[in-house]
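Lab notes, practical 5.
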Amino acid sequence: MRPRNLSEFVGQRRFLGEGKLLSRLLKADRLGSMIFYGPPGVGKTTLAFLIAKESKAVFKQISAVSDGVKTLREILDNARERLSVSGSRTLLFVDEIHRFNKSQQDALLPDVERGVVVLIGATTENPFFTVNNALLSRSRVFQFEPLGLDDVKALVRRAAADPERGLGAYDVELRDDALDYLAAICDGDARRALSTLEVAVLSSLDSDPDAERPKIVLTKELVAESAQRRTVAYDRDGDEHYDSISALIKSVRGSDPDAAIYWLAKMLEGGEDVRFLARRLVILASEDVGNADPNALPLAVSCATACEIVGLPECKLNLAQTVCYLACAPKSNAATEAIYAAIADVRESRILPVPRILRDAHFKAAKDLGHTGYQYAHDAPGAVAAQDYLGVEREYYRPTDRGAEREIGARLEKIREILRSAKGKPDSVRPESVDGRFVEKE
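Output from the prediction step:
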Protein backbone atom coordinates (compact mmCIF):
# COMPACT_ATOMS: atom_id res chain seq x y z
CA MET A 1 0.00 0.00 0.00
CA ARG A 2 2.97 2.37 -0.35
CA PRO A 3 1.93 5.42 -2.39
CA ARG A 4 2.98 5.16 -6.02
CA ASN A 5 3.14 8.92 -6.57
CA LEU A 6 3.13 12.13 -4.58
CA SER A 7 -0.61 12.63 -5.07
CA GLU A 8 -1.24 9.44 -3.04
CA PHE A 9 1.07 10.51 -0.22
CA VAL A 10 -0.84 11.37 2.95
CA GLY A 11 0.25 13.78 5.65
CA GLN A 12 3.12 16.25 6.14
CA ARG A 13 1.24 19.04 4.38
CA ARG A 14 3.26 21.54 6.41
CA PHE A 15 6.15 21.21 3.96
CA LEU A 16 4.66 19.06 1.19
CA GLY A 17 1.40 20.91 0.59
CA GLU A 18 0.78 23.13 -2.42
CA GLY A 19 3.23 26.00 -2.42
CA LYS A 20 5.21 24.65 0.54
CA LEU A 21 8.99 24.36 0.59
CA LEU A 22 9.51 20.76 -0.51
CA SER A 23 6.85 21.03 -3.19
CA ARG A 24 8.52 24.14 -4.58
CA LEU A 25 11.95 22.47 -4.55
CA LEU A 26 10.56 19.49 -6.46
CA LYS A 27 8.78 21.69 -8.98
CA ALA A 28 11.92 23.76 -9.56
CA ASP A 29 14.12 20.65 -9.66
CA ARG A 30 16.41 22.25 -7.07
CA LEU A 31 16.71 19.35 -4.68
CA GLY A 32 19.58 19.31 -2.24
CA SER A 33 20.46 16.96 0.56
CA MET A 34 17.84 16.53 3.29
CA ILE A 35 17.35 15.04 6.72
CA PHE A 36 13.94 13.51 7.42
CA TYR A 37 13.36 13.54 11.17
CA GLY A 38 10.31 12.01 12.82
CA PRO A 39 8.66 8.97 14.42
CA PRO A 40 8.25 5.60 12.67
CA GLY A 41 5.47 4.95 10.19
CA VAL A 42 4.94 8.51 8.97
CA GLY A 43 6.35 8.15 5.45
CA LYS A 44 10.05 9.06 5.59
CA THR A 45 11.23 6.14 3.42
CA THR A 46 8.22 6.36 1.13
CA LEU A 47 8.69 10.06 0.49
CA ALA A 48 12.38 9.56 -0.29
CA PHE A 49 11.46 6.94 -2.92
CA LEU A 50 8.77 9.19 -4.42
CA ILE A 51 11.19 12.13 -4.59
CA ALA A 52 13.69 9.96 -6.50
CA LYS A 53 10.91 8.91 -8.87
CA GLU A 54 9.68 12.46 -9.33
CA SER A 55 13.17 13.81 -10.01
CA LYS A 56 14.10 10.82 -12.22
CA ALA A 57 17.08 9.99 -10.02
CA VAL A 58 18.46 6.51 -9.39
CA PHE A 59 17.28 5.44 -5.93
CA LYS A 60 19.77 3.68 -3.65
CA GLN A 61 18.87 2.71 -0.12
CA ILE A 62 21.07 1.57 2.75
CA SER A 63 20.55 1.15 6.46
CA ALA A 64 23.02 2.57 8.96
CA VAL A 65 22.14 -0.37 11.20
CA SER A 66 23.29 -3.12 8.84
CA ASP A 67 25.47 -1.44 6.18
CA GLY A 68 28.96 -0.13 6.74
CA VAL A 69 31.50 2.11 5.03
CA LYS A 70 32.39 -0.56 2.42
CA THR A 71 28.81 -0.64 1.07
CA LEU A 72 28.62 3.13 1.27
CA ARG A 73 31.82 3.61 -0.75
CA GLU A 74 30.65 1.20 -3.44
CA ILE A 75 27.42 3.18 -3.89
CA LEU A 76 29.31 6.47 -4.00
CA ASP A 77 31.81 5.11 -6.56
CA ASN A 78 28.96 3.92 -8.77
CA ALA A 79 27.21 7.27 -8.36
CA ARG A 80 30.29 9.14 -9.59
CA GLU A 81 30.63 6.86 -12.60
CA ARG A 82 26.91 7.11 -13.39
CA LEU A 83 27.03 10.90 -13.24
CA SER A 84 30.09 11.16 -15.51
CA VAL A 85 28.87 8.59 -18.08
CA SER A 86 25.13 9.25 -18.35
CA GLY A 87 24.60 12.40 -16.32
CA SER A 88 22.06 10.54 -14.15
CA ARG A 89 21.81 11.63 -10.56
CA THR A 90 21.71 9.26 -7.61
CA LEU A 91 19.46 9.75 -4.61
CA LEU A 92 21.03 7.98 -1.64
CA PHE A 93 18.62 7.19 1.17
CA VAL A 94 20.31 6.36 4.48
CA ASP A 95 17.85 4.93 6.97
CA GLU A 96 18.61 5.46 10.68
CA ILE A 97 21.46 7.82 9.74
CA HIS A 98 22.01 8.65 13.40
CA ARG A 99 23.46 5.13 13.80
CA PHE A 100 26.43 6.08 11.60
CA ASN A 101 29.40 7.20 13.67
CA LYS A 102 31.35 10.37 12.91
CA SER A 103 33.78 8.76 10.46
CA GLN A 104 30.95 7.07 8.57
CA GLN A 105 29.06 10.34 8.30
CA ASP A 106 32.26 12.11 7.23
CA ALA A 107 32.62 9.63 4.35
CA LEU A 108 29.46 11.14 2.83
CA LEU A 109 30.64 14.73 2.93
CA PRO A 110 32.79 15.05 -0.25
CA ASP A 111 30.17 13.56 -2.58
CA VAL A 112 27.33 15.43 -0.90
CA GLU A 113 29.22 18.69 -1.23
CA ARG A 114 30.05 18.10 -4.91
CA GLY A 115 26.49 17.06 -5.71
CA VAL A 116 27.46 13.53 -6.76
CA VAL A 117 24.55 12.25 -4.67
CA VAL A 118 21.45 13.80 -3.23
CA LEU A 119 21.46 12.53 0.33
CA ILE A 120 18.27 11.90 2.26
CA GLY A 121 18.95 10.71 5.76
CA ALA A 122 16.09 9.41 7.91
CA THR A 123 16.24 9.45 11.67
CA THR A 124 13.96 9.10 14.66
CA GLU A 125 16.51 10.97 16.80
CA ASN A 126 17.02 14.73 16.90
CA PRO A 127 19.55 15.32 14.09
CA PHE A 128 20.93 18.41 15.80
CA PHE A 129 22.34 16.05 18.43
CA THR A 130 23.11 12.97 16.32
CA VAL A 131 24.20 14.18 12.88
CA ASN A 132 27.53 15.89 12.19
CA ASN A 133 27.38 19.67 11.98
CA ALA A 134 29.20 19.58 8.63
CA LEU A 135 26.52 17.29 7.19
CA LEU A 136 23.70 19.28 8.77
CA SER A 137 24.99 22.54 7.31
CA ARG A 138 24.68 21.02 3.83
CA SER A 139 21.19 19.65 4.37
CA ARG A 140 17.66 20.87 4.94
CA VAL A 141 15.95 19.33 7.94
CA PHE A 142 12.29 18.37 7.54
CA GLN A 143 10.51 17.34 10.73
CA PHE A 144 7.77 14.77 10.16
CA GLU A 145 4.78 14.72 12.49
CA PRO A 146 2.57 11.71 13.36
CA LEU A 147 -0.29 11.35 10.92
CA GLY A 148 -3.55 12.99 11.93
CA LEU A 149 -6.69 10.97 12.64
CA ASP A 150 -8.24 11.89 9.28
CA ASP A 151 -5.03 10.91 7.46
CA VAL A 152 -4.99 7.49 9.12
CA LYS A 153 -8.68 6.93 8.36
CA ALA A 154 -8.08 7.81 4.70
CA LEU A 155 -5.24 5.27 4.49
CA VAL A 156 -7.30 2.54 6.16
CA ARG A 157 -10.31 3.14 3.87
CA ARG A 158 -8.03 3.06 0.84
CA ALA A 159 -6.41 -0.20 1.93
CA ALA A 160 -9.76 -1.82 2.70
CA ALA A 161 -11.13 -0.95 -0.74
CA ASP A 162 -8.08 -1.48 -2.97
CA PRO A 163 -8.56 -4.82 -4.82
CA GLU A 164 -5.03 -4.92 -6.24
CA ARG A 165 -2.74 -4.11 -3.31
CA GLY A 166 -5.13 -3.97 -0.40
CA LEU A 167 -8.03 -5.97 0.99
CA GLY A 168 -10.58 -5.11 -1.67
CA ALA A 169 -10.95 -8.78 -2.59
CA TYR A 170 -13.05 -9.06 0.56
CA ASP A 171 -16.26 -7.26 1.33
CA VAL A 172 -15.01 -5.21 4.29
CA GLU A 173 -17.47 -3.06 6.17
CA LEU A 174 -15.74 -0.48 8.32
CA ARG A 175 -17.84 0.54 11.30
CA ASP A 176 -17.36 4.17 12.29
CA ASP A 177 -16.48 3.38 15.90
CA ALA A 178 -13.96 0.76 14.74
CA LEU A 179 -12.32 3.21 12.38
CA ASP A 180 -12.18 5.89 15.07
CA TYR A 181 -10.65 3.43 17.53
CA LEU A 182 -8.07 2.17 15.03
CA ALA A 183 -7.03 5.71 14.12
CA ALA A 184 -6.64 6.58 17.79
CA ILE A 185 -4.59 3.59 18.95
CA CYS A 186 -2.04 3.66 16.12
CA ASP A 187 -0.63 7.03 17.30
CA GLY A 188 -0.25 8.41 13.80
CA ASP A 189 1.75 5.37 12.61
CA ALA A 190 0.46 4.24 9.20
CA ARG A 191 2.37 0.98 9.37
CA ARG A 192 0.74 0.04 12.65
CA ALA A 193 -2.72 0.98 11.38
CA LEU A 194 -2.41 -1.11 8.21
CA SER A 195 -0.96 -4.10 10.08
CA THR A 196 -3.86 -4.06 12.53
CA LEU A 197 -6.35 -3.79 9.69
CA GLU A 198 -4.75 -6.75 7.91
CA VAL A 199 -4.82 -8.94 11.02
CA ALA A 200 -8.44 -8.02 11.72
CA VAL A 201 -9.59 -8.90 8.20
CA LEU A 202 -7.52 -12.02 7.58
CA SER A 203 -8.28 -13.49 11.01
CA SER A 204 -12.01 -13.22 10.21
CA LEU A 205 -11.98 -15.25 6.98
CA ASP A 206 -12.95 -18.48 8.71
CA SER A 207 -16.37 -17.03 9.52
CA ASP A 208 -17.66 -17.93 6.03
CA PRO A 209 -15.01 -19.95 4.14
CA ASP A 210 -17.34 -20.87 1.24
CA ALA A 211 -18.26 -17.31 0.32
CA GLU A 212 -16.82 -16.11 -3.01
CA ARG A 213 -16.29 -12.62 -1.57
CA PRO A 214 -16.45 -13.01 2.21
CA LYS A 215 -18.31 -10.35 4.13
CA ILE A 216 -16.25 -9.00 7.03
CA VAL A 217 -17.64 -6.47 9.48
CA LEU A 218 -14.87 -4.55 11.21
CA THR A 219 -16.08 -3.78 14.72
CA LYS A 220 -14.32 -1.96 17.52
CA GLU A 221 -14.02 -5.23 19.45
CA LEU A 222 -12.42 -6.95 16.46
CA VAL A 223 -9.89 -4.13 16.06
CA ALA A 224 -9.06 -4.25 19.77
CA GLU A 225 -8.46 -8.01 19.59
CA SER A 226 -6.31 -7.63 16.47
CA ALA A 227 -4.12 -4.83 17.79
CA GLN A 228 -1.03 -5.57 19.79
CA ARG A 229 -0.90 -4.20 23.29
CA ARG A 230 -0.43 -0.48 22.91
CA THR A 231 3.08 0.62 23.68
CA VAL A 232 4.11 4.17 24.41
CA ALA A 233 6.77 5.47 22.03
CA TYR A 234 9.25 6.59 24.64
CA ASP A 235 13.02 6.61 24.94
CA ARG A 236 14.38 7.51 28.34
CA ASP A 237 17.52 8.93 26.73
CA GLY A 238 15.99 10.46 23.60
CA ASP A 239 13.73 13.21 22.33
CA GLU A 240 10.54 11.83 23.89
CA HIS A 241 12.15 11.98 27.32
CA TYR A 242 13.15 15.63 26.99
CA ASP A 243 10.02 16.72 25.14
CA SER A 244 7.69 15.00 27.62
CA ILE A 245 9.34 16.36 30.77
CA SER A 246 9.33 19.79 29.12
CA ALA A 247 5.59 19.43 28.47
CA LEU A 248 4.96 18.32 32.06
CA ILE A 249 6.89 21.22 33.58
CA LYS A 250 5.32 23.81 31.29
CA SER A 251 1.83 22.45 31.96
CA VAL A 252 2.34 22.70 35.73
CA ARG A 253 3.82 26.17 35.33
CA GLY A 254 0.82 27.09 33.20
CA SER A 255 -1.57 25.88 35.93
CA ASP A 256 -3.19 23.14 33.80
CA PRO A 257 -3.52 20.03 36.01
CA ASP A 258 -5.27 18.03 33.28
CA ALA A 259 -2.44 18.44 30.77
CA ALA A 260 0.15 17.89 33.50
CA ILE A 261 -1.46 14.62 34.61
CA TYR A 262 -1.57 13.38 31.00
CA TRP A 263 2.16 14.01 30.44
CA LEU A 264 2.91 12.40 33.79
CA ALA A 265 0.90 9.33 32.75
CA LYS A 266 2.71 9.14 29.41
CA MET A 267 6.10 9.22 31.09
CA LEU A 268 5.12 6.63 33.67
CA GLU A 269 3.71 4.29 31.00
CA GLY A 270 6.89 4.80 28.98
CA GLY A 271 8.98 3.52 31.88
CA GLU A 272 10.40 6.82 33.13
CA ASP A 273 12.39 6.69 36.36
CA VAL A 274 10.08 7.92 39.15
CA ARG A 275 13.05 9.37 41.01
CA PHE A 276 13.79 11.60 38.04
CA LEU A 277 10.17 12.77 38.03
CA ALA A 278 10.23 13.39 41.78
CA ARG A 279 13.45 15.41 41.52
CA ARG A 280 12.00 17.56 38.77
CA LEU A 281 8.92 18.29 40.90
CA VAL A 282 11.12 19.34 43.82
CA ILE A 283 12.94 21.77 41.54
CA LEU A 284 9.68 23.02 40.05
CA ALA A 285 8.18 23.66 43.49
CA SER A 286 10.86 26.29 44.14
CA GLU A 287 11.39 27.51 40.59
CA ASP A 288 7.77 28.14 39.61
CA VAL A 289 5.66 28.14 42.79
CA GLY A 290 8.15 29.51 45.28
CA ASN A 291 6.86 31.56 48.17
CA ALA A 292 3.47 32.07 46.56
CA ASP A 293 2.70 28.75 48.26
CA PRO A 294 5.34 27.79 50.85
CA ASN A 295 3.70 24.36 51.21
CA ALA A 296 4.67 23.39 47.67
CA LEU A 297 8.31 22.54 48.39
CA PRO A 298 7.61 20.42 51.52
CA LEU A 299 4.97 18.52 49.59
CA ALA A 300 7.35 17.88 46.67
CA VAL A 301 10.08 16.72 49.03
CA SER A 302 7.59 14.44 50.79
CA CYS A 303 6.59 13.07 47.39
CA ALA A 304 10.23 12.25 46.59
CA THR A 305 10.55 10.46 49.92
CA ALA A 306 7.29 8.59 49.37
CA CYS A 307 8.48 7.42 45.93
CA GLU A 308 11.57 5.91 47.58
CA ILE A 309 9.54 4.24 50.33
CA VAL A 310 6.56 3.03 48.30
CA GLY A 311 7.96 2.44 44.82
CA LEU A 312 5.94 1.50 41.75
CA PRO A 313 3.10 1.12 41.06
CA GLU A 314 1.59 2.87 44.09
CA CYS A 315 3.94 5.87 44.04
CA LYS A 316 2.07 6.98 40.91
CA LEU A 317 -0.54 8.24 43.39
CA ASN A 318 2.04 10.34 45.23
CA LEU A 319 3.27 11.84 41.99
CA ALA A 320 -0.27 12.53 40.78
CA GLN A 321 -1.20 14.28 44.03
CA THR A 322 1.89 16.46 43.88
CA VAL A 323 1.50 17.34 40.20
CA CYS A 324 -2.13 18.38 40.71
CA TYR A 325 -1.26 20.47 43.76
CA LEU A 326 1.65 22.24 42.08
CA ALA A 327 -0.40 22.91 38.95
CA CYS A 328 -3.21 24.52 40.96
CA ALA A 329 -0.92 26.45 43.31
CA PRO A 330 -0.36 30.21 42.85
CA LYS A 331 2.85 30.80 40.91
CA SER A 332 5.90 32.93 41.60
CA ASN A 333 9.41 32.84 40.20
CA ALA A 334 10.54 35.83 42.27
CA ALA A 335 13.02 33.79 44.32
CA THR A 336 14.34 32.16 41.13
CA GLU A 337 14.96 35.52 39.50
CA ALA A 338 16.53 36.80 42.73
CA ILE A 339 19.21 34.11 42.90
CA TYR A 340 20.03 34.36 39.19
CA ALA A 341 20.35 38.15 39.42
CA ALA A 342 22.62 37.84 42.44
CA ILE A 343 24.74 35.18 40.72
CA ALA A 344 25.08 37.47 37.69
CA ASP A 345 26.39 40.24 39.97
CA VAL A 346 28.83 37.85 41.62
CA ARG A 347 30.13 36.69 38.25
CA GLU A 348 30.17 40.00 36.39
CA SER A 349 30.98 42.61 39.07
CA ARG A 350 33.62 43.09 41.70
CA ILE A 351 33.09 40.71 44.59
CA LEU A 352 31.76 42.66 47.55
CA PRO A 353 33.72 42.58 50.77
CA VAL A 354 31.73 41.59 53.83
CA PRO A 355 30.90 44.76 55.82
CA ARG A 356 32.96 45.01 59.01
CA ILE A 357 29.89 44.92 61.24
CA LEU A 358 29.00 41.47 59.85
CA ARG A 359 32.42 39.90 60.03
CA ASP A 360 33.29 37.18 62.52
CA ALA A 361 33.95 38.66 65.94
CA HIS A 362 34.65 35.42 67.83
CA PHE A 363 38.39 35.83 68.20
CA LYS A 364 40.63 38.04 70.35
CA ALA A 365 41.80 40.51 67.73
CA ALA A 366 38.34 41.05 66.22
CA LYS A 367 37.87 44.41 67.93
CA ASP A 368 41.32 45.61 66.85
CA LEU A 369 40.39 44.76 63.23
CA GLY A 370 37.18 46.75 63.48
CA HIS A 371 34.79 43.78 63.48
CA THR A 372 32.37 45.68 65.68
CA GLY A 373 29.05 47.47 65.54
CA TYR A 374 26.76 44.54 64.78
CA GLN A 375 23.24 44.97 66.18
CA TYR A 376 21.54 41.81 67.37
CA ALA A 377 18.28 41.76 65.39
CA HIS A 378 16.20 40.23 68.17
CA ASP A 379 16.92 43.23 70.37
CA ALA A 380 15.36 45.60 67.82
CA PRO A 381 11.63 46.35 67.51
CA GLY A 382 10.00 43.69 65.35
CA ALA A 383 13.39 41.90 65.26
CA VAL A 384 14.52 44.20 62.42
CA ALA A 385 17.63 46.28 63.11
CA ALA A 386 18.44 49.37 61.03
CA GLN A 387 21.58 47.84 59.64
CA ASP A 388 23.29 47.64 56.22
CA TYR A 389 23.85 43.98 55.43
CA LEU A 390 25.20 44.30 51.87
CA GLY A 391 26.87 47.65 51.43
CA VAL A 392 25.25 48.51 48.09
CA GLU A 393 21.77 49.37 46.89
CA ARG A 394 20.34 46.14 45.56
CA GLU A 395 16.86 44.58 45.54
CA TYR A 396 17.08 41.05 44.20
CA TYR A 397 13.89 39.62 45.67
CA ARG A 398 10.71 41.23 44.39
CA PRO A 399 7.69 39.33 45.72
CA THR A 400 4.64 39.01 43.51
CA ASP A 401 1.10 39.83 44.59
CA ARG A 402 0.04 36.18 44.29
CA GLY A 403 -0.74 33.78 47.11
CA ALA A 404 1.26 33.98 50.31
CA GLU A 405 3.81 36.23 48.61
CA ARG A 406 1.37 39.13 48.74
CA GLU A 407 1.71 39.18 52.53
CA ILE A 408 5.45 38.59 52.30
CA GLY A 409 5.81 41.54 49.94
CA ALA A 410 3.89 43.89 52.21
CA ARG A 411 6.02 42.92 55.20
CA LEU A 412 9.24 43.13 53.18
CA GLU A 413 8.48 46.70 52.12
CA LYS A 414 8.28 47.77 55.76
CA ILE A 415 11.51 45.91 56.52
CA ARG A 416 13.28 47.57 53.60
CA GLU A 417 12.24 51.02 54.84
CA ILE A 418 14.02 50.27 58.12
CA LEU A 419 17.08 48.84 56.34
CA ARG A 420 17.30 51.82 53.96
CA SER A 421 17.68 54.12 56.94
CA ALA A 422 21.02 52.43 57.60
CA LYS A 423 22.35 53.07 54.10
CA GLY A 424 25.10 55.67 53.97
CA LYS A 425 26.24 55.23 57.57
CA PRO A 426 30.04 55.41 57.89
CA ASP A 427 31.77 52.15 57.01
CA SER A 428 35.39 52.18 55.84
CA VAL A 429 34.87 49.34 53.39
CA ARG A 430 31.39 50.16 52.17
CA PRO A 431 31.28 49.82 48.34
CA GLU A 432 28.73 51.50 46.13
CA SER A 433 27.04 50.62 42.86
CA VAL A 434 27.89 52.75 39.83
CA ASP A 435 26.26 52.07 36.46
CA GLY A 436 25.39 48.55 37.52
CA ARG A 437 28.97 47.76 38.59
CA PHE A 438 30.33 47.44 42.10
CA VAL A 439 33.18 49.83 43.02
CA GLU A 440 34.72 50.63 46.38
CA LYS A 441 33.92 53.96 47.91
CA GLU A 442 36.97 56.10 48.55
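Observations recorded by the TA: Residues 6-143 form a domain with the Rossmann fold fold (CATH 3.40.50.300). The radius of gyration is 32 Å.
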